Amino acid sequence: MAKILVTGGAGFIGSHLVKRLVNDGNEVIVIDSLLRGNKIDKDIFSKIIFVKEDVRNFEVIKKLSQGCDHIYHLAAVLGVDVVADNPVETMDTEVMGMKNIVDAALLNNVSKIIYASTSGVYGHSAIEKSVTETIQLDPRTSYAIAKRYNEIYLKAVFEEKGLNSISVRFFNVYGPQQDNRMVIPRFMEQALNNEPITVFGDGNQTRDFTFIDDTVHACVTLAEKVNGCEIFNVANENELTIEELAKNVVKVTGSKSVIDHIQAPKKRYDFEVERRFGNSQKLFDAIGFKPKTTLEKGLKAIIDSDYKHSSK
Questions:
Q1: What pTM does this model have?
Q2: Residues in Cβ contact with 41 at an 8 Å cutoff, skipping those fewer than 6 apart
Q3: 179-207+239-276+294-306, what's its fold?
C-alpha cells in the first residue's frame, strides 16, 4: 500500500483515478478547489482524506504531501471556453501549481510525480500522421503552452535534483461523469433529448477519443513501473471525425437527432486542429498496455452509468 496525493482529484479524470487508487488499497489524499463540483463517488469519498484548497497554496501542498510516495498532479483550469476567457489564470494555476508540487516533493522526499499533460502540445504538428512523443511541438493556447513549460520544468528538476516524473499526454479522454463542456457528453445529452447535435464546422476535423478506464490504468501502471523523467502519449490510436462521432452517438442512443453544422466561436480558433490522433507505441513498450476500449463500448458505458434512469 502506498500513500498518494492527488491534486484535482474531484474532477472527471481525477475522480476515476482516485477510485482506482482506493480500490487498489492505497491511502489517498485529495486536494481540489471544487470550482467544478465533486465527482468522487460517495463510498470512495468516505475512504479518503479530502482538502478543499487551491493547488497554488504551497503550505497546504507541503503539509499534505508529507509521507507520500507519489503525487498525481491533475489540478488545472479546464474547458475550451474557460481557458480562452482566462489565459492568465490558466497559466498561473499550471506554473505556480507545478512549482509548489515540485518544491513539496523535494522537501518531503516524494519519489515520483505523475503529471497530467495534454495532446494540445502538438498543436498543428504532424497532421499527416499519428503523433509520437518525438515530433516537433506546436502549442498554440495558454493551456498547451503552460503544459509544455511544465514538462520542460520537470525535465530540468530531474536532471538537477533527481526527482522522478512522468508526464502523460492525454488524447480526448471521455467516460462517465464527464460534464458537457466536452464534446461527447454534449452530443450524448443532445441525442438522448432528440435535439439537433451541434457540430462545429464541416465535422471533418478528427480526434482520438480515449476511454477513461484505459487512461487511468495507463497512469497507475506507469507510476508503478517507470522511473526517470519520461513523457508518454495515452491515445486510443483510432482517428475519428467529429461527424462520425456524432453519427456513432445517434446510433448507440437510438436517437432521432439530426446533425446541425454551426460556425465555431472565434475564441475557439486556436483550439481547432483539423487532424490529431496519437501513437501509443512508447507506452506499450514501457508497460505492455495500450488503450483498447472501442468507442461503442465506451459510449454504452456512459449510458449505463449516467443515463440508465433517463428516458429517450
A1: 0.93
A2: 15, 19
A3: UDP-galactose 4-epimerase; domain 1 (3.90.25)
